[in-house]
């Protein structure tokens, strides 16, 4: 940050001056510098941050950024004397070596800023750990992860955009949608009639799948993840806090091969044909870009860091699936449960925007449906926090009549109640619930 420290190993004033000098020489260097320095919080000296932000102001106004114009601008804002006067601007320009690479020096400044931030957060963790009770060790670990994740989650790139730039990008995206083949705008769920209503799972948005226990939340989430990774080749990260890796994979085997789940679990009952189906399925899906994380204590910090690692190692992530939200450990165990759930849902929403991928998360409803005669869930049944309804771009409520009445005429069916849809209509879609195969099947597909 801009506050000064005493450790000479945590800053490089020459690099900071060269960056500013390059920007005063040519506005073209903003393209190289801005991705690393964003709004200028990474400068060690406050005067350099002030100069940098003044340069951004001039650039955004489409005015020259030369030392004379910059000095006049700083005089008008009352900052010229504070940054060392007009002669200091010329000193920065004089620092620029021949054929200087502005991006290289900007990256140097950003790296020193990261080291200073790490040092501060490290000391913060030490102080908190020394005062923490041993019973809260796990919670302290999650808090430490959350603090460190703020460093990786907070980008130095600018978050604001001029209207002409934002409008141009959006117009291009609209054109790409218009030229694309017919089908959902986002990632299809694999359920044709659901996709017609939702138009797929859109990047940067949070979809909540909510139900009472044993209705089919996990089944739906695994179906969506399997369809995206296996059938569409999308890179999917699945966080399963409730089921082990073995349980996740076993269910996907059943859904993908039509071999009943009970036979797979009781392997001695598998037929030769079953074994052949399983072997063929493994071979056919061996290259599916699906990452399964079955850590039972995957909090927001863990999900962020794991996703970031996968992006660094394999490239962009297309879909994040979390099963399920209320099992995620909170960063602040002392907060009320409502505050904890609000923090988790907001964190997942922000993660979707930061990664630029849809996030689908299961969550549990309260006992409201059980107290109504028709047992149908409503948005108000979202357990423990109204923020779930607020943060979710889409909310899908699951209802199976045969979960309460095995003799129901709708046995074998599940209603997917699209109770909230930010981009379209609300509707109720009935799908076939083939739970013995751990899957839902769209009735719109013959």
Topology:
Layout: H1 13-25, H2 30-37, H3 46-60, H4 67-77, H5 86-95, H6 102-131, H7 137-153, H8 163-179, H9 192-198, E1 206-211, H10 217-231, E2 236-240, H11 245-257, H12 261-265, H13 272-284, E3 290-293, H14 300-314, E4 319-323, H15 337-355, E5 359-364, H16 387-391, E6 394-399, E7 413-421, E8 427-434, E9 439-442
Parallel strand pairs: 1-5, 1-6, 2-3, 2-4, 4-5
Antiparallel strand pairs: 6-7, 7-8, 8-9
Model description:
- This protein has 446 residues and is α/β, with parallel strands linked by helices.
- It folds into 2 domains: 6-182, DNAb Helicase, Chain A (Orthogonal Bundle), CATH 1.10.860; 184-442, P-loop containing nucleotide triphosphate hydrolases (Rossmann fold), CATH 3.40.50.300.
- 48% of the residues lie in helices and 12% in strands.
- The protein has 16 helices and 9 strands.
- The chain has helices at 13-25, 30-37, 46-60, 67-77, 86-95, 102-131, 137-153, 163-179, 192-198, 217-231, 245-257, 261-265, 272-284, 300-314, 337-355, 387-391; strands at residues 206-211, 236-240, 290-293, 319-323, 359-364, 394-399, 413-421, 427-434, 439-442.
- Strands 3-2-4-5-1-6-7-8-9 form a 9-stranded mixed beta sheet, with helices on both faces.
- A hairpin with a 5-residue loop joins strand 7 and strand 8.
- The N and C termini lie far apart (60 Å).
